[in-house]
Structure formats: C-alpha cells, structure tokens
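User: I'll paste a sequence; please echo it back and then give the predicted structure.

Assistant: Echoing your sequence first, then the prediction.
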Amino acid sequence: MTSRSSAADLAAATPEGRDRWIDFLRAFSIGAVVFGHWLVAVVVWEGGSVEGFNALERIPGFWPLTWVLQVMPLFFFVGGFSNLVSLRASQRRGEGYAGFLQGRFVRLMRPTIAFLAPAVVVVAVLDALNVADDFVFPVANLITGPLWFLGVYMIVIALTPPMASLHDRFGVAVPLVCVGLAIAVDVLRFGFGVSAVGFANYPIVWLLAHQWGFLYADRRLLPAHGRFLAPLGLAVAAALVALGPYPNSMVGLATDEFSNMDPPTLPIVALTLWEIGLAMLLRAPVARWLERRRPWTAVVAINGVIMTAFLWHLTVMVVAIGILFPLGFPQPEVGTGSWWLLRPPWIVCLLVLLGGFVALLGGIERAGFKRRHSGAPPNAVSALLAVVGAVATLWGVLGFAIGGLHQVFSPTGDVLIVLRLNPFQNVVHIAWGVTVMALADSSRRHLAAAGSFVVATALAIAGPLLRSGGLTNILALNLEADLLHAALAVVAAAAAVVWWARRTEVAAA
C-alpha cells in the first residue's frame, strides 16, 4: 500500500469538495473482490499438480453470500462518476477525446504492464524448460483472470464521451433504455433460444451501472433515492431467481447450468439497483466517518495501489500455495469446521504476501502522470488514432484474459472474435496500441508519424488477408504471422523511441 507518510500527506491535502464516499466505494468494491476470491477459491495440491474450484460449489447453502460479494456493479458505478469528472476536466483543458482516453488508459496500463511483463517472462522460461507443465498451465491461466474485468472496463472508458453526450441530452432515460435493452436480450436468449445475443449484455449491463455514476456526478441521483432503489432491486432479483430460469448465485459456479455473470443477466441488473441503492442509503454515515483522519488516510493508501493489489491478488495465492502446501499446510474438506477455522489464517498469510508485492510494485501505480498536451486543437485524426490504439491495447488485454499466459509462442492459441492469438501476439498488440495512443495526443508532426505507422501496419496485414481469402484467417498462427508481429513490435519500439526523444527536446526547449 501507499507508505503511511505519503498517504497521510495526501489525506491532509484533500480538497474540501472531494467526494470521499466515492473513494471509499472504489476501495471497498475492489477489496471485496480480492477477499471474496481468497475466501471461496479452493486449490487442492496433490503430487505437484493443482486443481481449483469454488467453495460455493460444495457449500450450496451459502449462495446468498454472492449477493454481497459480487460488487462489480459498484465499481462500474464509481467508474462512471470518475470518468465523467475526468472527461469534463479534459474538455476544459481542450484536450479532446485522444487526451481523455490516453489519460484514463495510462492509469490502468501502467500497473497492468508491470504485472504482465514479469509474468510473461517467467511463464515463457518455464514453458521452454518444460517445467511442471501440469502446474504451470492451470496457474498461468488462473492469474490472468482479473484481466477480463479490466478489458470490459476499458471498453466502458472508451465509450464514456458518447455516453456522456447521451447523458447530457437525455439524463435518466439512458439507464432506463439500458434496462430495456437488457430485458430484450434475455428474452431473446432464454425465450427464443438465441444464445449468442446474450453477449450484448456485457456492454449494456456495465454501461447501465456506469450511467448511474453519471447521474450521481450531476446530483440527479440523491441519497434519498436509495429508499426506492434498494428494495426494488432486491425484490426484483429475488423474483427473477425464484420464478425465472436464473441460478441463485451471482457468480459463476460449475454446478449451475449457466452463470449470471458470463454474460450478465437480468438478476445482475437488479443487483446493480440493489447495491447502488444500499450504497446511497449508507452515504451519509460513511461520509461522516471518513471525515476522521485515520479511516480517510487508510482509504487514500488503498486507492493509491488499488490496481496493483487487484492484479496481483491471485498470483499471491499461487505463491502461497507453492510455499505452504508442500510444507504440509492443512487442506481439510471444504465446508467442514476445520476448513472454516483455517480461512482466517490463510487470508492473513495472503494479505502479508500481497503487502510485500504492493510494497515492491505499488510505486509504479502511484507515480504521477504528467502529460504535456501539444496545444493543438482536437481533430478527427487524433481521435481516430486514439480509437485504433485503444482497440489494439484492449485486444491484447482480452487476449490474456481469455487465453492466459501459457505457451507464449503456441501455434494454436485462443480465439478472440475472429483471430487466434497467443501471448506473444497479445504483448505486441498492447505495445503497439499504447504507442499509437501516445502519439495520438502529440503535435501534428507526431500525428503524421503515427498515421504513417498505422497505414504501414494495415498494409502489412493486407497481405495475409488477401492470401487467406477470408477474414477468419487474418494473422493465422504460424511462423509468418509471428514474424509479422515481431516486425510490428520493432516498429512500435522505434516509434516510441522517436516520440520520446522529440518529447524530451520539446521539454528541454
């Protein structure tokens, strides 16, 4: 976490008008995810191999716990508030879409790259040595689990400007339309068997929670509204799981026919209303409590390293398993008294380990982000480049979320929409995307360089496309594709060096 002295200094310097309750909700929501995973994730170590499952699959009576621990709606609600405030500040500075997108993505990608870089290297070395494949494979896929959430959140960030325009024009009608669309999706999915349409609820449901954050930022959502939203959401969620086809659990379980989260269903919509309503009801007492020095300093400290803790919390669990289980750490039957008694010391061990990781890597996230805006007026070219860079970055993040880290140069890979991607290609996409986004908010000369970079890349991709004769074979996983991605990586690195050198010259002048 943020060091005590720096956190105390930041807490003491908090502006008078800052909404401390929002900061608390951010820390609480991510903290609940971390502790929830540590509580219910069970990993069995046998003969050097691992098997994982959710404890709730063996303790079915505890599904109500998921109605409290599934707090992703709260995080997207907080994100809506923060992203709208950031967008408006960016617009006041005259930065445009590229400046906004770059600022928000950098804050996410800095700790993400710090997480992925060593993980990819370690897994690549273990793959090359063919070390403990029955351990490396499941672990390499487990630790990238948090990236699916990050990928969805990045999509929501990219859609913030158009959704903010709709919000300014239509207000509360926007989340109501999202509710209507979510209902239509589930009707088609469960009523007419069109299962593929369910994936539309990924952006719809999380944008719904995001729009509630917009309403709160504009003071159209008030604490008094919680008296209506909380009971309504809870009642609707209960009715849906009791009378509809939905499972009781609000997290994915192997024992359920399908998951309410993957993709999101109407019970998650109702859960969003319930959690936001409850949070609004608790706002006043929590805000008063946060006026005290110690709790507010703790919130500041946690928020300073929140993404680092989130990204590494499953890796910490893997490290603890690798250290403690071979030494004979007890593994009692799930749900027994012994199992419950061991949960607190197990979580304490994980918390200590996570503290070490955060102490080592948290500074990367805490480092201030100072972007020198070129002063050029926003234009369509910079916005287009920002979108292209964001899509490439997102493609890499989601590629890791779906396929994990195992077999870095695999000839099979995992399918993301129409492309088969391996971890090496995901790394290239992230590096390429981040570079293009950095160039998108630079001067006109740099925009020209970035545009040339994108055109050259498009031409490089056109060859395999024309030879394949079909979209699904673009960048097919073979030696030729890996060479293409390697070339793109070199070009991206060269562009980044040139951009940084010119930026340094401008700063020195």
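The first helix runs from residue 4 to 12. Residues 380-508 form one domain.
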